[in-house]
Amino acid sequence: MNEDNLKEKEELKPSISFIEQFIAEDIKDGKNGGTIVTRFPPEPNGYLHIGHAKAICLDFGMAKKYGGKCNLRFDDTNPVKEDVEYVDSIKEDIHWLGFDWDNREYYASDYFGKLYNFAVELIKRGLAYIDDQSAEIISNQKGTPNQPGTVSPYRDRQVKESLDLFERMNKGEFEEGSRTLRAKVDMTSPNMDMRDPIIYRIIKSPHHRTGNKWNVYPMYDFAHGQSDYFEGITHSLCTLEFEVHRPLYDWFVEQLKTSDYRPRQIEFNRLNLTYTMMSKRKLLELVQEGNVKGWDDPRMPTLCGLRRRGYTPESIKRFVDLIGYTKVEAINDVSLLEHAVREDLNMKSPRVFGVLNPLKVIIQNYPEGQVENVELINNPEDENMGKRHVPFSKEVYIEQDDFMETPPNKFFRLAPGMEVRLKGAYIIKCEGFKKNPSTGIIEEVYCTYDKETRSGGSGSERKVKGTLHWVSAAHAADAEVRLYDRLFNHEDPSGQKDDDYRKFLNPDSLKILTGCKVEPSLLTAKPLEKFQFQRLGYFCVDSDSTESKLVFNRTVSLKDTWAKVNK
Ligand code: ATP
Ligand code: MG
To answer: Which of 343, 457, 461, 521 shows its CA 20 to 30 Å from the CA of 20?
Structure first.
């Protein structure tokens, strides 16, 4: 993504989204007393990912902007897949993004009683019935969009009988899968969801909050709109795949409502990213099969993974803002996300020196034992971030690829007879090197320095074309650095025919460098602290880091504006 593309993108984007236009209009018209109440409804069956962030920013963001409220509601209607571990992580991640639900932490399971009573009410009104057929048969009877479905033989069963069976289903008298409760809507509707959808099924696993209290559980479609209604939600914002569910959502609310109030469902496009997989089920497989080291592996698109990788909440919100909300499914370029984090970290992160692949340079005419503290600016983008002192001495490390024995044209780094500036310190000239005769590896480089050229000193104006970062060998701290590449080497790893994303796993997605050398100021850095390693990229202290072993993650590389090598 280049800057021009970006600008174009920003200009094309309407100043407010279509959703915000609806909300602003409703408020202006005094609908719902001129208030807005939204909800974020995660299912606690996995960790939140960047796609969820898009929904969170909208749900919480709109409520905040228009002086309303956003509830957090766990959509815990399936006891088989849900767990408190996920509940806790979801709360942590929403807070990290900078949003809060005050005391409005709700659970769909809080409404199981009300939902059950509503289901009973529907049976009594002749709008629901118990079907003794299996879900598979019911599905086969559904017909096709152009062909009406086949009416179930149980559709006209007596109300009394359905009531009795529903009660006994909930008492646990029947096996899972043996019976369901269906809404009696319309078997000829062109909308398949309206063809007598199943609204309750028997599940005998204990629920993480209600234990063994229930043996019947509502389906998502039966729980969601009604929960919205119970909570007084005004705008129920969800992703496009729920558009076809909207008539059913409205149908249930219509049966339930007792006044003019009704929640309004509005759909927007979900976030898809290139080289990224977003399904929670598949992310769980990655974790369980050991293809990543956990939900917070820095290669994961989860919010905890991105956090550990060094992403900031601001960069994620900025990204969400850049892509906007539309009615068109799209796949966004992951490089736009990388752009957003670079832009944010550029402003916020102190510059430091870190050498990933060290090569020792010995400055032969520099006095033995002498140490000078050279002054360096912490962030040229923000002078409030001040300056720091970095020790310089006779032996320093530079990057291996900043030296070449026989350089090509325009290699403005170090090579025999060539001069470079060590940033913030002196101009040095390469006088020779030591090469391992059997491996061909360069082991040491010998230089002299021009003592008049210290940065800020009298001869500091003298210009050379290359400037290198460095770390004093005697003062350097050892570090491990983890470099990440895309987890998948296919643009759309989970959108392929056979659905086997595993074959697109990038075997080189993690590269661990040990023996890196970083400037001593980093010895006190704490997990999650972020830095720009000059000329290399943005790095973040990993949670594995300890005082005796520093560990950094590379968040994102830097567009290299210093090295003027024409490739
Ligand atoms: P997944 O497909 O990853 O399992 P989900 O939709 O089942 O996601 P939920 O926990 O039900 O996950 O999602 C909570 C909310 O987040 C829903 O309102 C859903 O629409 C929204 N959401 C989920 N994935 C995305 C996405 N990729 N982009 C935007 N919103 C999303
Ligand atoms: Mg869902």
So the answer is: 343
* CATH of residue 380: 2.40.240.10
Q: Which two tokens stand for residue 145?
A: 């969009």
Active site residue 195: no
Q: Which of 104, 157, 270, 429 is catalytic?
A: 270
Question: Encoding tokens for residue 417?
Answer: 């007879």
- Of all protein residues, the one whose alpha carbon is nearest to atom 4 of ligand 1 is 280
Ligand closest to 48 (CA) is: 1
Cα(395)–Cα(373) distance, rounded to whole angstroms?
14
Whats the size of the chain, residue-wise? Answer: 567
Q: Is 42 a member of any domain?
A: no
Task: Output DSSP code: residue 271.
Answer: P
Active-site pick, 280, 307, 317, 394: 280
360 is a domain residue: yes
554: phi then psi, degrees, rounded to nearest 5:
-80, 120
Q: Nearest ligand to the C-alpha of residue 46?
A: 1
Sheet holding 105-107, edge to edge: 37-40, 69-74, 105-107
* Residue ranges lining ligand 1, Cβ < 6 Å: 41-43, 51-52, 54-55, 75, 238-239, 270-271, 278-280
71 found inside a domain = no
Tell which one of 48, 239, 302, 303 to mutate to probe ligand 1, the residue whose CB is within 8 A of the most ligand atoms.
Answer: 239
* pLDDT less than 50: residues of the chain: 1, 560-567
17-68 tens-digit pLDDT: 999 999 999 999 999 999 999 999 999 999 999 999 999 999 999 999 999 9
Which stretches does DSSP call E strand in 101-249? 105-107, 128-131, 180-183, 198-202, 216-218, 235-239
User: The domain containing residue 447 runs over which residues?
Assistant: 351-475
381/387 Cα distance (integer angstroms):
12
pLDDT (tens digit per residue) in 375-423: 999 999 999 999 999 999 999 999 999 999 999 999 999 999 999 999 9
Is 270 among the residues known to form the active site?
yes
Cα(430) to centroid(ligand 2), Å: 62
In-domain check, residue 237: no
388 noted as active-site residue: no
How many domains does the structure of the chain reveal?
1
